[in-house]
Design a protein that fits this description.
Length: 164
C-alpha cells in the first residue's frame, strides 16, 4: 500500500484511490426552461429514513450544474446493468432523450423507464462540497423493480450479477 497526501500534485492518485470504492450508477433528471435534462452521477447516498432524505453531488464544473443547482424538483434513477446506454447518453448530452422511454411526473420531472429504483425528490437543502455541491432531497415518491445494478469501480462500469 502506498501512502500520500491528497494535494494538487497527487489528484490523479487520489481519484484512483476513491475509485476503489464501488458505487451504483444513477441518472438524475429535472425539467428546465429548455426541456428535460439528465446527468449521470455516482455520488448518491441515503441520508435519513425519517424524514426520507437522499443526497447527490453535481460537479460545479459541469455545464449542467446551474440547472441542477436551481432545480426544486428532480428524480434520481438507479440504473440496471441493462442501462449502460442510458448511463453513457447522459454523460455526453443531458438534453438528448431521443429513443429513451420516459414520462413526466406530476411536477414535470422526466421519469426514466426501466430503472431499478427511482426517487422523486424536492430540494431539502444544499451544502458546499468544494468542487461539488451536496444536494439533499426530500423523497416524495419511490418506485422499485427487480434486477441487477450497474456498478462503477476502478474507473469503469461493471455488471454485478443478481444475488444468489
Amino acid at each position: 500500500m502506498t501512502a500520500f497526501r491528497p494535494d494538487i500534485d497527487a489528484s490523479r492518485a487520489f481519484r484512483d484511490a476513491l475509485g476503489q470504492f464501488a458505487t451504483g450508477v444513477t441518472v438524475v433528471t429535472t425539467q428546465t426552461l429548455h426541456g428535460p435534462l439528465g446527468i449521470t452521477a455516482n455520488s448518491f447516498a441515503s441520508v435519513s429514513l425519517d424524514p426520507p432524505l437522499v443526497l447527490w453531488s453535481p460537479a460545479r464544473a459541469s455545464k449542467r450544474f446551474a440547472a441542477f443547482e436551481a432545480a426544486s424538483h428532480y428524480a434520481i434513477h438507479i440504473l440496471s446493468d441493462a442501462q449502460v446506454h442510458i448511463c453513457n447518453r447522459f454523460t455526453r448530452d443531458g438534453f438528448d432523450f431521443s429513443g429513451i422511454d420516459w414520462s413526466a411526473s406530476e411536477a414535470g420531472v422526466p421519469l426514466l423507464a426501466g430503472a431499478l429504483a427511482r426517487f422523486e425528490c424536492t430540494r431539502h437543502a444544499a451544502h458546499d462540497g468544494g468542487d461539488h455541491l451536496i444536494i439533499v432531497g426530500h423523497v416524495e415518491r419511490v418506485a422499485k423493480s427487480d434486477g441487477a445494478p450497474l456498478v462503477f469501480a476502478q474507473g469503469g462500469l461493471r455488471p454485478l450479477g443478481p444475488p444468489d
